[in-house]
Design goal:
Blueprint: E1 8-11, H1 17-31, H2 41-55, E2 57-62, E3 68-75, E4 78-84, H3 93-104, E5 108-114, H4 118-126, E6 130-135, E7 146-152
Antiparallel strand pairs: 1-2, 2-3, 3-4, 5-7, 6-7
Length: 155
């Protein structure tokens, strides 16, 4: 598996949609067992293809053999997506993607993550994000309580 130094980041292309979708689905299934599925795999691919890729800045992380290890998307001032293959966790891939998003931001970011995604919450807190609001799940399709995080660059 790729370590931090062997990871290459690049801008995502339309041709990455299927692999990004696979990473998204696998990551959510591994991190949040029992999370209510509100869209089919086909609908998720359509959303990645027609909404995420054309509507935000998206980067992918690739290993030495060109395999897609993860992706992140920036939509205005929101880190909208950051997902890794389950076998790519704790190897610096998420940190590299998050650093790229921070560099591309205007010095401030917000993001939502599910409250019970303790690993993601710990990751964001290690990288300077602060929890600023807690929701009961009424704002997302899954009905899952979530947390709003914010990060501001140190100037």
């Amino acid at each position: 598996m790729a370590q931090d130094g062997s990871v290459h980041l690049r801008n995502a292309t339309a041709g990455d949609a299927a692999e990004i979708t696979r990473v998204f689905l696998a990551s959510r299934a591994a991190a949040l067992p029992g999370l209510r599925r509100v869209h089919s795999d086909e609908d998720t691919l359509a959303w990645i293809t027609h909404v995420v890729l054309p509507g935000s800045r998206v980067w992918v992380a690739e290993g030495e053999a060109g395999e897609l290890l993860g992706f992140a998307s920036l939509d205005g001032g929101e880190l909208d997506q950051l997902y890794l293959r389950p076998d790519a966790l704790r190897q610096g891939v998420g940190t590299r993607l998050l650093e790229r998003v921070k560099e591309a931001s205007a010095g401030e970011l917000s993001l939502y993550t599910f409250r019970r995604n303790y690993a993601a919450r710990a990751f964001y807190e290690r990288h300077g994000f602060v929890a600023v609001a807690y929701d009961d799940g009424s704002r997302n399709e899954e009905g899952e309580p979530d947390v709003l995080y914010r990060w501001t660059a140190v100037r």
